[in-house]
TrEMBL record:
GO molecular function, a single term: isomerase activity
Originating organism: Gracilibacillus boraciitolerans JCM 21714
Pfam annotation, one family: UxaE
Full protein name: D-tagaturonate epimerase
Recorded superkingdom: Bacteria
InterPro entries the record matches: UxaE
Amino acid sequence: MEQFQEVVVNLAAGKIPKTTDSVTVYESSLEKVDSTHIVMVKSGTEKYLVAAGEGALFNELEGENIGQGKICGLTHHNSKVLNKYFDYTNPQAFGTEIATMGLGGDRLGVASPGHIETVKNRKVKPILAQQSIRELTLLNRTMTDVLDAATFAVFQEGYKDGYGADADHIKLEKDIEYALDLGFSFLTLDCSEQIRNDIEGATTDEIHKEFADLPVDRKEYFENHYLNKPFEIEGLTVKFDEASLHKNVLVYGGSN
């Protein structure tokens, strides 16, 4: 840990640490809470939080003490400490009046700093934490890993304009509850298992017969709201006749 000594000394003195041959300092991450200064650094291939001073923030961070400072790994515990003291590291929900951009997700937890660079000073909010359950399983990651990676990236870059977290391709109710409990700011529901692809191979008579067997109130709902009613979408008129309505209700009706 000797390579961090100069960083600790500068932090303790209230100075901005500088990059050395062995340690890269992310100056944009430098923060101060009461008597504690904290900054993110990189040594070799690993990143750390370096804190110096005293007070609640310093005490709550987990790491190895060195002189007047502490060298802290990018752990889930330390991610939650950052969330507690720096609100901009928490994901936000932006509603429908603010443009957001999904950036393909940070599959390995290392790409978000680059994603942040693409949206800085632009009128769009990035969705930094975004990965499906299937991808998490394949990569042996968790929803917690995704949120932690976004937290550390935002802190590293000093990005304070807000970001979102999308629990992507959610299929099960338990995963919805889990994602919301973790702090994801919105959900993308995957209804693919409720979509009936077999209807594509059915005849018109078969489709009409199956639609006729639906509960009366369900049939009346779709017919009253959609049958032969025009919908204007950016200059395009969409209208469902009887055949297309019956087919679409059977294909997608189970997913609503």
